[in-house]
Write a structure and sequence with these properties.
The complex is a heterodimer of chains A (117) and B (118). Chain A is mainly β. Chain A has no helices and eleven strands. In chain A, 38% of the residues are buried. The mean pLDDT of chain A is 90. With 118 residues, chain B is mainly beta. Chain B contains no helices and twelve strands. In chain B, a hairpin with a 6-residue loop joins strand 5 (32-39) and strand 6 (46-52). The mean pLDDT of chain B is 91. The chains are: A mainly beta (117), B mainly beta (118). Chain A binds chain B through residues 33, 35, 41-45, 48, 50, 56, 58, 88, 90, 92, 94, 99-103, 105-111, 113, and chain B through 4, 31-33, 35, 37, 42-47, 50, 52-53, 91, 93, 95-97, 99-111.
């Protein structure tokens, strides 16, 4: 089945450690996104990528890094510079191509819940 | 400034009744899309319905319909015949910008928690 797979589902990080969240899609989508969700809150954009080997900062990129070496994969690294990383992280993708149409919805993964211990 | 406003943090509805979840948006672009997503307690985001800024008719998808009032910049979600499984967080989102622009991201509102009562 086509979809977006995030792993792991739960992740625990010690203070000062970097951790990487995986996001893989087999939908052949060009665009991929990372969002952070805090309890009872909406989604805030961390990074996005419209095409392989290119990505842009979102609203809350500080303390995070990404790469987009393959179309299918968009891993997110939470670095030790991120002072409050405990949150729910959602990866999404959408088909774009050259049209950059606004009528294409985003498809989401199941999320990764990161906790600092 | 908030681009998407959802003024109802929580809503209750009796099973089998209809409920309206409010969403207002702010944009100066003539081309934009509005989306509603459902987030159950498990966390995944489920796409429900889409409305384009140039669409002449209100969108409908099964029990979901969108009350689109362009002049008021509102895109309220109507759920008819509520079911217990409809209990979840509901997010309104917008995507804006001309077709040639780069980085047309999705902007989400704070969400409304809907509780369906038996």
């Amino acid at each position: 089945d086509g979809g977006i797979t995030q792993s792991p589902k739960y992740l625990f990080r010690k203070e000062g450690q970097n951790v990487t969240l995986s996001c893989e899609q087999n939908l052949n989508h060009d665009a991929m996104y990372w969002y952070r969700q805090d309890p009872g809150q909406g989604l805030r954009l961390i990074y996005y990528s419209q095409i392989v080997n290119d990505f842009q900062k979102g609203d809350i990129a500080e303390g995070y890094s990404v790469s987009r070496e393959k179309k299918e994969s968009f891993p997110l690294t939470v670095t030790s510079a991120q002072k409050n990383p405990t949150a729910f992280y959602l990866c999404a993708s959408s088909i774009e191509g050259q049209s950059r149409a606004v009528n294409t919805e985003a498809f989401f993964g199941q999320g990764t819940r990161l906790t600092v211990v | 400034a908030q681009k998407i406003t959802q003024t109802q943090p929580g809503m209750f509805v009796q099973e089998k009744e209809a409920v309206t979840l409010d969403c207002t948006y702010d944009t100066s672009d003539p081309s934009y899309g509005l989306f509603w997503y459902k987030q159950p307690s498990s966390g995944e985001m489920i796409f429900l319905i889409y409305q384009g800024s140039y669409d002449q008719q209100n969108a409908t998808e099964g029990r979901y319909s969108l009350n689109f009032q362009k002049a008021r910049k509102s895109a309220n979600l109507v759920i008819s015949a509520s079911q217990l499984g409809d209990s979840a967080m509901y997010f309104c989102a917008m995507r804006e910008g001309p077709a040639w622009a780069y980085g047309q991201n999705f902007v989400f509102g704070p969400g409304t928690r809907l509780s369906v009562l038996p």
